[in-house]
TrEMBL record:
Listed CDD domains: CAP_ED
Keywords: DNA-binding, Transcription, Transcription regulation
Record domain Cyclic nucleotide-binding: where: 23-142
Source organism of this protein record: Dissulfurirhabdus thermomarina
Cellular component, GO annotation: cytosol
UniProt name for this protein: Crp/Fnr family transcriptional regulator
Superkingdom field: Bacteria
InterPro entries: cNMP-bd_dom, cNMP-bd_dom_sf, Env_Response_Regulators, HTH_CRP, RmlC-like_jellyroll, WH-like_DNA-bd_sf, WH_DNA-bd_sf
One example GO MF annotation: DNA binding
Keyword DNA damage: no
The UniProt record lists the keyword Transcription regulation: yes
Domain HTH crp-type: residue ranges: 156-228
PROSITE patterns attached to this UniProt entry: CNMP_BINDING_3, HTH_CRP_2
């Protein structure tokens, strides 16, 4: 539904989307309208790169719908997924304040995003003091998440990392029997390892009766059977 404001501007789904983004939450309607007026809609097809590591990033994006993977990669092609942006997420926050992007962003699905240029955004930051505080808070949370990734890679085995990943999924499912549909290649990227290593770790969990590998087309998905023992593996209290 679209409504008109006293200024004559019309508010619709884009306004509601922006109002729900944490970095813009709490801004007065007039400030949100100014931001929207400076934004352009961008369409990314599945497999399109939004930006690449080392490239200068000129825009902040708010994902309207779709899914975007933010990941690091090296010259051998090995990759580490940092996070997945979903509808309502803002991404490129930190990149706007550096000389170049520290990671890549890839559309995992057909995606649509609202983008605002660096100068337009900086103008809004100078005008709205509250926006600066929200930017700092959001960037700080993202840095904390990256620090957790580094800690996990440094101090946990692949088996523990995989168990922790599956257990986090289970913790969001009220039935405690969740079937994980993430592919093994995606798991490997998320866990900072190779696909074959993930396959061996999944088989060990299956042999122990903690998960069941359920056929689904050409793939097999992991259904969690024993979340308590899965959590114990993630903590390092149970070895397989």
């Amino acid at each position: 539904m679209t409504t008109a404001t006293a200024s004559g501007r019309r508010r619709g789904p884009d306004f509601e989307l922006l109002r729900g983004v944490p970095v813009f939450e709490g801004l007065p309607p007039s400030a949100l309208e100014d931001l929207l007026a400076a934004m352009e809609r961008r369409v990314f097809r599945k497999g399109d790169l939004v930006f690449t590591q080392g490239e200068k990033v000129e825009r902040l994006y708010v994902l309207e719908h779709g899914r975007v993977e933010v990941f690091k990669s090296d010259i051998t092609g090995k990759r580490l997924t940092l996070w997945f942006a979903k509808a309502g997420d803002a991404f490129c926050l930190g990149n706007l304040f550096s000389e170049s992007a520290f990671a890549n962003a890839l559309a995992r699905q057909d995606s649509v995003a609202l983008g605002i240029g660096r100068e337009d955004l900086f103008r809004a930051l100078r005008k709205e003091a509250g926006l600066i505080h929200r930017f700092v808070a959001c960037i700080s949370r993202r840095l904390a998440a990256y620090a957790e990734i580094v800690e996990t890679l440094a101090f946990r085995s692949v088996q523990q990392r995989l168990a922790a990943f599956l257990w986090r999924c289970v913790s969001l499912d009220c039935t405690k029997e969740m079937t994980c549909t993430v592919t093994r290649s995606e798991m490997a990227s998320l866990l900072g390892t190779r696909r074959e290593v993930v396959s061996r770790a999944l088989r060990r969990l299956g042999t122990a009766g903690i998960i069941e590998l359920v056929p689904s087309g050409k793939a097999r998905h992991a259904k969690v059977l024993d979340p308590d023992r899965l959590e114990a593996v993630a903590r390092g209290d149970l070895s397989l």
